[in-house]
Specification:
Strand content: 25-35%
Pfam families: Pribosyltran (PF00156)
Structural class: alpha/beta
Strand order of the largest sheet: 5-4-3-6-7-8
Radius of gyration: 17 Å
Distance between the termini: 13 Å
Enzyme class: transferase
Oligomer: single chain
Number of strands: 8
Largest sheet: 6 strands, mixed
Bound molecules: orotidine-5'-monophosphate
Shape: globular
Number of helices: 7
Family: Belongs to the purine/pyrimidine phosphoribosyltransferase family. PyrE subfamily.
Helix content: 40-55%
Mean pLDDT: 92
EC number: 2.4.2.10
Pathway: Pyrimidine metabolism; UMP biosynthesis via de novo pathway; UMP from orotate: step 1/2
Order of helices and strands: HEEHEHEEEHEHEHH
């Protein structure tokens, strides 16, 4: 797999904004990781505007996807989905409805847990990262509970880790739900970027060690 120019730009951008950082991090799954992608650091207008363009670029690459509504799961998916539909409108002339969920059920006012466009028809999920797939499964359950049909998922980073079994978290979701899971970049591409850049020998070997330990078998 070779790096496309928008993927290289995305990795450079994420490193420069410290959204993608290297060190030692404990993940939700309990795994100790030498890198972390923190979508909470898209914390200013320019960064948020930029990330939307990258998700929109993946959608252009995957132009066979037939979706009616973009769904951003609370909390981190909300600004990401908003920024994606803005990019689709501004750069591709596509006016796509979007919605998100509340984590708390509201029993007054408009009630319900979905805010924005009704969650009906074919739904595309936009989220930050997939590791073991727990967060994505929660979103898929919300969409099904609302009687809508999930048709795909796009995350910024696919960490390419094994889920509960031998296959990757993504492969497992693709098998269980029959939908594609796409990403702007994945661990292999991040490793490839570091290799191309040069001067990161120590970091590279730690990243590869991690991939050997938790990564998918190819
Ligand atoms: P899974 O639910 O195991 O797929 O983990 C995905 C979630 O973990 C993301 O939605 C984040 O909340 C968090 N996460 C990151 O944000 N960045 C990472 O690089 C790794 C994780 C993680 O904890 O695995």
């Amino acid at each position: 797999m070779s790096l496309k120019s928008y993927q290289r730009e995305f990795i450079e951008f994420a490193i420069s904004q410290e959204i993608l950082s290297f060190g030692s991090f404990i993940l939700k799954s309990g795994r100790k990781s030498p890198y972390f992608f923190n979508a909470g650091k898209f914390n200013k207008g320019s960064a948020l505007s930029t990330i939307g363009k990258y998700y929109a670029a993946v959608l252009q690459d995957e132009n066979h996807l037939d979706y009616d509504v973009v769904f951003g799961p609370a909390y981190k998916g909300i600004p990401l989905a908003s920024s994606t539909v803005i990019a689709l409108s501004e750069h591709y002339n596509k006016d796509v409805p979007y919605s998100f969920n509340r984590k708390e059920i509201k029993d007054h006012g408009d009630g319900g847990s979905i805010v924005g466009a009704p969650l009906k028809g074919n739904i595309l999920i936009i989220d930050d990262v997939i590791t073991a797939g727990t967060a994505i499964r929660e979103s898929l359950a919300i969409i099904k509970e609302n009687g809508a049909t999930p048709v795909g998922v796009i995350v910024a980073v696919d960490r390419q880790e094994r889920g509960t079994g031998e296959v990757s978290a993504i492969q497992q979701i693709e098998q269980d739900y029959g939908i594609p899971v796409m990403s702007i970049v994945n661990l292999d591409l991040i490793i490839q970027y570091l290799k191309e850049k040069g001067g990161y020998d120590e970091r590279l070997s730690i990243m590869k060690e991690y991939r050997d330990m938790y990564g998918i078998k190819k």
